[in-house]
Design brief:
heterodimer; A: mainly alpha; MetI-like fold; 13 helices; B: globular
Chain lengths: 343, 303
């Protein structure tokens, strides 16, 4: 058992696959069961705790006894009296670089210490919304549009690539010129034109993104199928009287290229998370009442320059982790496929 | 001479297809342009909005060919004038960003390609990998947070007057750095260059060179020129797309910012013009690459 795990890790891409699947699982868990992780919903405004920094109070709560906690609180109260949330002067606004957690806003009316879930673990934003709840709500809004992109890109790209690789000729030339056309406009600018013309919702834009990715998927599959199409086993299958449909679906796709589906799925997910957050940041994707990571960053512009770093940085890290997860997974699987095929 | 003709035909054909695509997205989709902008019947007539779609397309294409992309629907300014006004900073940004990322990626990529299994090589590829997962605006905010946190200043007004290094560096430095590092540009370059170096290094002619005891650098660099040019050109599109985001993050008034604002205000002629200009730019670079390949590689000429 142990040696099998080790062998899995040591084949090319092993660590990447493990890392990637861990991150993707985390994202999935956050989407499916994330609402259990905090007592706050993404729209609950805790008006007593606006702009509360990510505080280690929950950690303190977990580690120390009530007495120690009280003493700690008293000691801190005797120390520097911190500014209240509304009036951070420019002198005090860059405290985060000195790594000293600022005193919590709304200090006087402290909540009774309940379970860990009742603390704002990652702090709160300008409206007193819990950052963790926002991040969890954002995870859903970046995963679902990504699925739309994948569905469009793969459902069109894979059959087109198979057909173009197997039959060649006119379809192949058409695909090549199509991809030449799409490649000559920056993808983001193309999406901006679509937004400009239709002002659509996120899912529509992500479907268009899927359309622009179709040539990439189909060209990849086309080159692979073209290499296979003249090999002995395909000729033998044709001689044996198998229908083209069966050869294409079984022998060319399922037996030879089904990994391409998984690899492309995760790479396209990475791409679409990137695009979705970027578009939301530019105010064209997920719109205000709905929460998206890019959206949170866009809304935190003003507060960011006053030193409330956490409202910007936590969604940023979430974006990076999500993209890295899909990216690691796709790339690791790709490396493994290349290695196994080379062997 | 037959091959260059085909290359030229492909160039013009693709640009024509791009123009059809851009026009179709805007004009063949539901929604009345005149109604969106509350144009009077008279203005709509002046903008040819009351003619058939085909007629509008040919009028627009003819305008594009003459360098006249129409007028902005928001303030009536000429789109060409707007683009001329906004493009110089963007050109500086693009050029410097690309050169910076090449300056970083070339040595690292070649070095890693020559020693792919060393620990340092693995670390380089990990860093490259992580960089290519960073969206531009996230990187922009990280950099802004660090710079603003330490220096407490950030220059947002474009420098004027005679050239002074520090004022220009203060304004252009951060966007260039973010554009060069973000968007996966550097990461992709390093990965690609190192793979290419590896495969060249293993090839027969490099083995012959090594057996003869000749210098490796000259032969390696010669075989690297074309692939590197190609990867740079294919990344131009990504880079130009990233410009929109970078200019938005740094509030940097260039073409990308213009296209963002045009989209926000639904200013169709501006965004169409920008898309066409970018497509022409990308296609011209690709054309040069094709011609270079045809000229340098005798195998392509004979077939």
């Amino acid at each position: 058992m142990g040696s099998r795990i080790l062998r899995f890790l040591h084949e090319p891409g092993g660590y990447r696959i493990v890392m990637g699947s861990l991150l993707v699982t985390l994202l999935l868990l956050a989407t499916l069961g994330g609402s259990q992780w905090t007592h706050y919903g993404p729209r609950d405004m805790d008006l007593e705790a606006q702009m509360q920094p990510p505080s280690p109070s929950w950690l303190r709560h977990a580690l120390t006894s009530q007495e120690g906690l009280d003493r700690w609180e008293k000691k801190r109260a005797e120390g520097v009296r911190g500014p209240s949330a509304g009036s951070l002067s420019s002198e005090e606004s860059f405290d985060f670089l000195r790594a000293e957690p600022g005193p919590e806003a709304g200090d006087g009316k402290k909540k009774p210490a309940g379970s860990l879930l009742e603390h704002h673990v990652l702090g709160t934003d300008r409206d007193g919304r819990d950052m963790l709840a926002l991040l969890i709500a954002g995870a859903r809004n970046c995963l679902l549009p990504g699925l739309v992109t994948c569905a469009v890109a793969l459902c069109l790209g894979l059959p087109l690539g198979l057909l173009a690789g197997y039959y060649g000729g006119r379809l192949r030339r058409l695909l090549q010129s199509l991809s030449g056309t799409i490649l000559s406009i920056p993808r983001l600018v193309l999406l901006l034109i679509v937004v400009c013309a239709l002002e659509p919702n996120v899912y529509y834009i992500m479907a268009v993104l899927g359309l622009t990715l179709v040539p990439r998927v189909s060209e990849l599959l086309m080159t692979r199928v073209r290499l296979l199409a003249n090999q002995g086993f395909i000729l033998a299958a044709r001689e044996a009287g198998l229908t083209d449909w069966r050869i294409l679906s079984r022998h060319l796709f399922w037996y030879q290229n089904r990994q391409v589906f998984t690899i492309q799925f995760s790479l396209i997910m990475a791409e679409s998370v990137l695009t979705e957050t970027t578009l939301s940041y530019l105010q064209f994707g997920t719109k205000a009442p709905e929460v998206s990571w890019g959206n949170i960053i866009e809304g935190s512009q003003m507060t960011f320059f006053s030193g409330y770093y956490w409202i910007t940085f936590f969604p940023a890290f979430a974006i990076i982790l999500a993209i890295l997860g899909f990216f690691y997974l796709g790339d690791g699987l790709n490396a493994r496929l290349a290695y196994r095929e080379g062997k | 001479m037959r091959v260059p003709l085909r290359i030229l035909g492909y160039f013009f054909g693709t640009l024509l297809a791009v123009s059809v695509l851009v026009f179709a997205i805007v004009h063949l989709t539901p929604g009345d342009i005149a109604a969106i902008h509350n144009l009077s019947a008279h203005t709509a007539h002046q903008l040819h909005l009351d003619r058939s779609v085909a007629a509008q397309y040919f009028l627009w294409l003819w305008g594009c060919l003459r360098g006249d992309f129409g007028i902005s629907m928001v303030n009536g300014a000429s789109v060409s004038a707007l683009m001329i006004q906004y493009s110089p900073p963007t050109l500086i940004l693009t050029f410097c960003g690309l050169s910076c990322s090449l300056l970083i990626a070339l040595p690292l990529g070649i070095w890693r390609g020559l020693r792919p299994v060393s620990l340092a090589g693995k670390l380089t590829s990990l860093a490259a990998f992580t960089l290519s997962a960073l969206p531009v605006f996230v990187l922009g905010y990280l950099v802004l947070g660090i710079v603003f946190g330490f220096f407490r200043v950030y220059i947002t007004t474009p420098p004027e007057g005679p050239f002074q290094f520090w004022s220009y560096a203060g304004y252009y430095g951060l966007p260039i750095a973010v554009l060069a590092l973000g968007n996966g540009t550097v990461g992709e370059f390093i990965r690609f260059i190192s793979l290419e170096t590896q495969s060249i290094n293993r090839s027969m002619h490099m083995r012959a060179v090594r057996a003869r005891g000749a210098g490796l650098g000259r032969h390696l660099s010669r075989s690297l020129v074309l692939p590197v040019y190609n990867i740079v050109v294919t990344h131009m599109a990504v880079l130009l797309g990233g410009l929109v985001v970078v200019e938005r993050v740094f509030n940097f008034h260039g073409l990308g910012w213009l296209s963002w604002e045009a989209t926000l205000k639904r200013d169709f002629p501006v965004i169409m013009g920008i898309a066409m200009i970018m497509a022409v730019l990308i296609r011209v670079f690709m054309l040069v690459g094709d011609l270079l390949a045809w000229w340098l590689d005798p195998r392509l000429r004979e077939n």
